[in-house]
Specification:
Blueprint: E1 18-39, E2 42-58, E3 65-71, E4 76-83, E5 87-94, H1 95-100, E6 103-105, E7 111-113, E8 125-135, E9 138-147, H2 150-156, E10 160-165, H3 179-188, E11 196-202, E12 208-227
Parallel strand pairs: 6-12
Antiparallel strand pairs: 1-2, 1-12, 2-3, 3-4, 4-5, 5-7, 8-9, 9-10, 10-11, 11-12
Length: 236
């Protein structure tokens, strides 16, 4: 995958020949990835872990798209944008440019059409609402995205993704990272609104694969702009 530096411009005018994606929230997370040692093919003990900083640009009223920002080093970010209705891009940008930009302008040569070839996966997965959990004497809603085909789960050793929802964020549609999760939500709308306070993946053997914890929520006004000629979204 090629990572390219893009030019971020501070501008104040719209062009009607462009597609604008509006973001009204910046979410900051710490993500910890876990690695387990194995003895005789059986997962035994936690070997090491790695934590990194991750940010999301979101729209509280439209959750079909989001931008995921990860620190690459002291100077640069990786920005992955996904519109589940048909657009994706993966670029790098200078931190100082991205932090200060009101408009993120991306040339069409960096934009790709997002295939929805995995939409069929919704017949294999489902969101299941769980009992509330207590964290520091406060109650939080929970749900999980899990395989609903036991034989398939066993054959492919499929993991389960858990969500704990931040209190008082019902104003925000569910913050879902992967296309399968969005497709499942879009099919049934069976889970509560809200930004996840924690998101963690438990593998088939019951081991924690990663955990993502919410650090801060910030109200913002940023826009990502692409040309109409590379607007592959079903929502024109």
């Amino acid at each position: 995958m090629k990572y390219l530096t893009i030019l971020l411009l501070l501008i104040s005018t719209y062009s009607f020949s462009q597609k604008h994606y509006n973001f009204d929230y910046l979410l900051e997370y710490d993500v910890t990835y876990y690695k387990h040692s194995e003895k005789g093919g059986i997962t035994d003990t936690l070997q090491n872990e790695k934590t990194l900083k991750k940010y999301y640009l979101t729209n509280s009223k439209f959750n079909n798209y989001k931008a995921e920002i990860t620190e690459l080093d002291t100077l640069t970010y990786q920005l992955i944008f996904t519109d589940n209705l048909g657009v994706s891009l993966n670029v790098t940008a200078l931190k100082k440019d991205l932090d200060n930009a009101e408009f993120i302008n991306v040339d069409c040569k960096y934009v790709k059409k997002l295939s929805n070839r995995f939409n069929y996966q919704t017949k294999h997965y489902d969101f299941i609402n769980l009992n509330d959990t207590l964290l520091k004497d406060m109650s939080y809603k929970r749900y999980k995205l899990t395989s609903i085909k036991p034989k398939r789960t066993k054959r492919h050793k499929l993991a389960t993704l858990f969500y704990i929802i931040e209190d008082s964020t019902a104003f925000h549609l569910p913050h879902l990272i992967h296309t399968t999760a969005y497709n499942e939500f879009n099919k049934e709308h069976s889970i509560p609104n809200g930004i996840f306070k924690e998101r963690y993946l438990v593998d088939y053997d019951g081991n924690l694969d990663f955990r993502e914890r919410l650090i801060s929520i910030q109200k913002i006004d940023k826009k990502l702009v692409i040309g109409d000629e590379c607007n592959y979204s079903a929502n024109k």
